[in-house]
Amino acid sequence: MNRETTVMGFFPALEAGYEPKNYSFYKEDVPTGNYLAKLDFMLWSKTFMAINCFFTIKDSGKKISLSVYKKPGEDDLYLAGETEIRFVSFGTMMHLSVESNQNGKPVLRDAVVEGNLVGE
Q1: CB under 8 Å to 15, separation ≥6 — which residues?
Q2: Structural element, H or E, at residue 15
Q3: For residues 66 and 76, what is the distance between their CA atoms, to the nearest angstrom?
Q4: If DSSP codes are grouped into helix, strand and coil, which group holds residue 16?
Q5: How far apart are CA 27 and CA 21, in angstroms?
Q6: pLDDT, tens digit (0-9, with 9 covering 90-100), for 63-114
Q7: Which of these, 5, 12, 23, 112, has the minimum number of CB atoms within 10 Å of its CB?
Q8: pTM, to two decimals
Q9: Backbone region of residue 27 per phi and psi (left: phi > 0; alpha: psi in -120 to 50; beta: other values)
């Protein structure tokens, strides 16, 4: 696996042509459950120790944003399930598992690179 982080800063991402505003993080727009989505790009969060991941859902074409938070006490690991998200290439298809937290906000519980699922 590539050990170079692919996460971008906000302004470099804009300069590269990425449009974070086209992706919704609102609970009405981000479906819960398991589905296939393409990782379009990632940005470092400005407010939390987190990475904001921007996906396009394969079946609907809907553009959504989900965050992956740094694990407390871990050596700078940003894990979605077992996947260290910082090193996933843009354009990768991923199986997402999204749940609602206690506030009803969608949370990325797991993201597995397509083809890496056990039994596939």
Answers
A1: none
A2: helix 10-15
A3: 19
A4: coil
A5: 16
A6: 999 999 887 776 778 999 999 999 999 999 999 999 998 888 999 999 999 8
A7: 12
A8: 0.89
A9: alpha
